[in-house]
Amino acid sequence: MKYYKVDMKEAQKPDTAAYRTFNDFFVRPLRDDVRPLNTDPNVLVMPADGVISQLGAIENDKILQAKGHDYSLEALLAGNYQMGRPVP
Predict the structure, then answer these.
(1) Is the pTM of this model over 0.70?
(2) What is the DSSP string of 28-77?
(3) How far is it, in rounded angstroms, from Cα 14 to Cα 31?
């Protein structure tokens, strides 16, 4: 946990012994006040903490994602192509 700098104070269950498996720990719920959601409909909210690992152009409606999986722009934006328009 030190290596990855996991702040267990953010978790609903801060005691690591509360997680029976690594997956339980990996998908642990956070306290409600830790990541307030922006309700602006023009803001893309990420469903998880993370970092940008790849950046590139969209080609043939495909976006290369982590671990070699491709997703369509439609899937990435949950069917709302309007969200993919260029930002002025």
Answers:
(1) no
(2) PPBPTTTSPPP--TTSPPPSS----------BTTEEE-GGG-EEEHHHHT
(3) 10
- Locate the domains of the chain by residue range: 1-39, 51-82
Q: Quick check: 70 and 46 in contact, CB under 8 A?
A: no
Tell me the pLDDT of the chain averaged across its residues: 82
Q: Looking at residues 35-45, what average pLDDT do you find?
A: 87
Quote the radius of gyration of the chain (alpha carbons, Å): 17
Compute the distance between CA of residue 81 and CA of residue 72 in angstroms, rounded to an integer: 11
For residue 1, what are its two tokens?
């946990």
CA distances in angstroms from 67 to 53, 70, 88, listed in the order given: 10, 9, 31
Helix H or strand E encompassing 26: helix 22-26
The per-residue pLDDT for range 55-66, each reduced to its tens digit, is 777 777 777 676
The pLDDT assigned to 8 comes to 94
